[in-house]
Amino acid sequence: MQLKYPALFQQQCYINGQWLAGSEEEVITNPSNGEVIGHVPTMGQNEAEQCVDAAHKAFSEWKLTTADHRANVLRKWYELMVEHSDDLATILTLEQGKPFAEAKGEIAYAASFVQWYSEEARRAYGEMIPSHRPNGKIVVTKEPIGVVAAITPWNFPAAMITRKCAPAFAAGCAMVLKPAPETPFTALALAKLAEDAGLPKGLFNVVTGDAIAIGGVFTADKRVRKVSFTGSTNVGKILMNQSASTIKKMALELGGNAPFIVFDDADIDAAVEGAMIAKFRNAGQTCVCANRLFVHDAVYDQFAQKLAQKVKALKVGDGFADNVVIGPLINAGAVAKVQAHVEDAVAKGAEALCGAFAKDGELFVAPFVLTQMSDDMLVAQEETFGPLAPLFRFYDEAEVIERANNTESGLAAYLYTRSLGRAWRVGDALEVGMVGINEGLISTAAAPFGGVKESGLGREGSRHGMEEYLEMKYMFMGGLDQ
Fold first, then answer.
1. Bridge pairing between strands 137-144 and 127-129
2. 52 by DSSP, 3-state: which?
3. Strands 13-15 and 18-20: what pairing?
4. Cys-Cys with 290: which of 123, 140, 213, 279 at CB 3.0–4.6 Å?
5. Which residue in the list 47, 95, 195, 253 is annotated as catalytic?
6. What number of H helices and E strands is found in the chain?
7. CA–CA dist 239, 257 (Å, integer)
8. Within this chain, do residues 276 and 423 fall inside the same structural domain, yes or no?
9. Domain enclosing residue 335, as ranges
10. Sequence-ordered strand ranges (E) for 152-268
11. Is 25 a catalytic residue?
């Protein structure tokens, strides 16, 4: 690994401002070739408790700092991320597999959250409410919620961390983080830069190892006032149940089953480009990935042909190879799920316009486009999380809205139409937290990210993401006429 700043590659956990090794280690491999990248400690309950201890102590001091001070520290962290973006992207590609250019894009996206909340730190406004008594004042203040536990996924190992940590630190909170076991090195590199930026010891703690033991401490310890999790719906439900005994605030960004709707009046070329982004970014391993592509009968064949032509041209391979657009999937289980969805669809009458699986043991999947899909196929009901674009035919607006909403998930949706009225009608009718209208890439630090139904609770990004880390306190000041 060639890094300009070798200290970014840490193989120890970061607890209370110290880099600590463990008695046991986990091996981290490169999904492109299976080679060992390095090792991280296998830690558990004791170390998780140390993290909470340190965070609780650091919070008592950090919450008293000025908004300007917190803003300046976050700004320095942002600048260091930009300065070392090549190194961060190198680490990310090695452990996650996405192409280097795409990894650089994620680092920029991750840094944008730190930049945004470095500015938002100064805007945690309270309010004055007209009083019900002439001799009193109603004042509402905002206070940091306290120690926050975050559990982040492997698909965006940098952005999902800063999207949680930056608003937490800006609000005056402390953070304990367990990164995904597949991608710990990106998290540790970010912690190193946070240390360099002047974040005080104990405020940011990163622990790797036993998910059940560490998660158990996060959900049971009363000093942890919020749990923020991005991942599967099933795990989110477990964490929610475990957190009930201490009534924690929850932020859950869970699974999706995003519809991508192409109406007969759409700009087909623009819709194809949007589908390429919404479906195949990160090899289809995104929670807002277009999972069911509904295409109007009048433009179905045209859209399918143009999409397949572009998909066939995508180069699959190692993330550091030239012109590679699709990297490996994260593990063999991810490949198996794509294969199960393809085989189920083909057995029920679907036609594959393109796509192929690599030889046994490899995690590369040449992206699929399937036509003649029906709603009884697995891919209509489950999130594939891989490079598979299934095209479902529809005939009218009411029908496609009903089918699009026929899912327990409600994270994102996309629609393409030239009709302003239809854009508003369908956008309003879709049961999701985010809608891309004539746009396939909707994520930005400036907008609230999150879903409805079983896709989770709360929002990340925007000013609303800051509010998630603040508690309101109402004070009535009476007797002001004395």
1. antiparallel
2. helix
3. antiparallel
4. 279
5. 253
6. 15, 20
7. 21
8. yes
9. 258-437
10. 174-178, 204-206, 224-230, 249-253, 258-262
11. no
